[in-house]
Amino acid sequence: MPQFPSLEAALKHFFGYEHFRPGQRKIVEEALQNRDLLVIMPTGGGKSLCFQLPALLKPGLTVVVSPLIALMQDQVDALQDNGIGATFLNSTLTFSEVRSRETAILDGKIKLLYVAPERLLSERFRNFLDLIATKVSIAAFAIDEAHCVSEWGHDFRPEYRQLIQLRQRYPHVPMFALTATATKRVQEDIIQQLGLRQPGIHLASFNRSNIYYEVQPKERRSYNQLLKLIRTQQGSGIVYCLSRRNVDEIAFRLQKDGISTVPYHAGMTDEARTLNQTRFIRDDVKVIVATIAFGMGIDKPDVRFVIHYDLPRNLESYYQESGRAGRDGEPASCTLFLSLGDVKRIEYIIDQKSDPQEQRIARQQLRQVINYAEGTECRRTIILRYFGERFPGNCSGCDNCRNPKPIEDWTIEAQKFLSCVARTQERFGMMHIIDVLRGSSKRKIEEYGHHLLSTYSIGKDKTVKEWKMLGRSLIHQGLVDETTDGYPVLKLNRRSWEILRKVRSVQIAVTAQSNSKVLEGYNP
Ligand code: ADP
Ligand code: ZN
Predict the structure, then answer these.
(1) Which residue, by CA, sits nearest to atom 19 of ligand 1?
(2) pLDDT tens digits, one per residue of 187-206
(3) In the chain, fewer beta carbons within 10 Å around the N or the C end?
């Protein structure tokens, strides 16, 4: 087995990730202690890693039970892309494919084997499992979508009930049950039906309730804005910038303005960096200014504030970076500065990428950051939604919840907007829709014959700005979809049609001076 100095090093080695997400580390540790586990995490939270990493660190084969053939293929592909020995056995394979995969498994070339529950219980497979157990050993059984074992879940599958046989046949092999279903009833059922023995129960939420989130439009004199903000903060904090040059300059100016500050970035020597980090941890200095591109190994529990002077690369890193605040559970605040210039700067960087796939992902990530930054919804709701977790809002711990914007009924306008999307065949972006609504005489409109539509020029009573505010709000509220690959195109969804059929009304937060103004004139 490969040896790693830490679990983080193993994580980085196999998956390329810098950090564990909430809960993952503890789960991996317990898995390595061969404990039974029940893992409940929101969809998208990172459950797979909780059994995949232990599988790679333990001797023997981990058998993963997964109900959906399509998902199996995806997971195995992703693992193989990372150079990890993984395969699946299911009904889509020919006999000779099955044979060659079985051989690879018995040769010890495979660490993770995915199987469908019905196959697992066949006579042939049971014999094969016995062979594995003696020849390469079974490290663990991971039962994905474990709620399928429960009639109280939303997706009961009778085959799952037979999985208890695994426990009976291989009583010493630990079992990991994973699900996104969190009701007590289902949990108890899983434990009982699978015969888990005093399992470690991990219920992960991504909510950091002691953190206050806010977004400030970045002012022209942004350094002064930063200085003012830092002067109001108790305790120590981190300021993130995009470039090394910015880091050096801001650290220098803060220092000059009487705030003890050190810089931290990849351009410094290891010694200088370690020294600055130590000074920050020991509270010799109040502020550390760091590049967002450079993962900081700082574990300081009492960081009271994190300020993103520049836009983060994506919501995942925003969550990680802002999450360095308030590890001690005491109140902490996270502020993000938003400016059009920064958005343009990041877009420029994205345009320089040569790989179109990478570009596509980066654009989508940027759009998610923008949606967070200019959204009028509870910030927590937006962040947690990114991790697949539903959060009701009204948290009182974010700027949008503390100072809600006035709400107005814009149902009629939304109907006009959405019917224009429908009449242009859901093939255009927001600006074109607004041009049609406002009766623009642009060439493109005539070329498509959109000046002949019944929705042409029915929206002259509202400004471009107002239509944009509506459009963005519809997207944020999930009332219309915007495609995220290539040029963004608006698409109607179930809720859009409810609005058009007049069974759903539309309230929007009307923003006089809001962050959406910062990005005025910006059309991603
Ligand atoms: P789940 O099974 O809980 O729905 P997945 O295991 O499919 O979620 O993970 C969701 C996404 O999160 C995947 O794209 C995965 O690569 C990513 N992910 C998981 N753990 C981490 C991590 N520690 N850092 C960054 N990304 C992660
Ligand atoms: Zn909130």
Answers:
(1) 46
(2) 899 999 999 999 999 988 88
(3) N
